[in-house]
Amino acid sequence: MIVAVAREILKGENRVALSPEGVEKLRKHGFEIHVQAGAGQASGLLDEDYVSQGAKIVADAGALYESADILLRVQPPGEHPDTGKHELDMLRSGALWIGFFYPLHNAALVKRAQERGVDVLAMDAVPRITRAQRMDALSSQTNLAGYKAAVIAAEALGKIFPLMMTAAGTIPPAKVVVMGAGVAGLQAIATARRLGAQVEVSDVRAEAKEQVESLGARFIEVESDEDLSGEGGYAKEASEEYLRKQQEVLHKKISEADAVITTALVPGKKAPLLVTEDMVKSMRPGSVIVDMAASQGGNCALTVPDEKVVREGVIIIGYTNLPALAATNASELYSRNLVSLLEYFTKEGKLEFDREDEIAQGALITKGGEVIHAATKSLLEQN
Known about the structure:
The protein has helices spanning 20-27, 47-51, 61-67, 87-90, 107-116, 137-156, 183-194, 208-214, 240-256, 277-282, 327-345, 358-363, 374-382, and strands at 2-5, 32-36, 56-58, 70-72, 96-99, 119-122, 164-166, 169-171, 175-179, 198-202, 218-220, 259-262, 288-291, 308-311, 314-317, 346-347, 350-351, 364-367, 370-371. With 383 residues, the protein is an alpha/beta fold. An 8-stranded mixed sheet has the order 3-2-1-4-5-6-18-19, sandwiched between helices.
């Protein structure tokens, strides 16, 4: 089977789906690897690195897609600038697309894949269970995003993060509020703490308190009887009453913060609004907000996706692809996620999907011209 690695077409996407290390591992399972020329260049991975591990370099995008039994990508498919065709239309019927797909947000893409007979395995839908940890690309990428968010906040802020004692006097540590203690939030907390900031954390899940405090941060508690712990480590969508109480508690904390990092997402939903315009107005000029939920509407009312803006004197950063800013490491980790997934489903050089397998049920969106992913199928039927 031919595994093809395509160059990413989204502006600003510096990652590549497979590293040379991954080429070597997949070839041991009998796969033939074709890599589009220059696919890894933005990640610091050269064509000769792939060739040295036994990959074939293909210059023509159309030829690469047409030959692929399996196409590996990072971003969801779109119109290809080299051919003018949609990427799903460039694949043969029966080919398998593996990459981030976000089926609950991309109904039109799911329908297109179904009509074209292209099978789709969405890396964002891999279930967060013990057996699938090595395949969990969401965790590997958001981990790096959380690190980057803290570093970006520190860089944008006109203050230093750590306590510093000088002959001219003592500089107090910066105050950072992190909203959401999932994978991204925990890494943002850990990074901000390593940089020396005082960190306070808000999360709707009560069990997050122990994790937050283990990192040396303070947990901001909201009195409520709601159980907002969802499946796979995600939070459920909070009620309006809970959000009202949370905003009351957070308003004061945010007004005193030098930097706020928001990470709250609910699968298949618009990101919850956590930082209102009034909260932004209450912050000191020069304060920073890094909104990691910008791609799904943002946690801050004034966030502009993919832009750094100043509103009410506050710097608001809404970059939607933070992992691409750490492309070398992000590509390495993503490649390992893909290799683990392919190894799991490979039997004697061929992919075999057991419909009863929990990982297949969670990640396989379309198969043989059918939408088989339960949540996606339900969404399409409602529309």
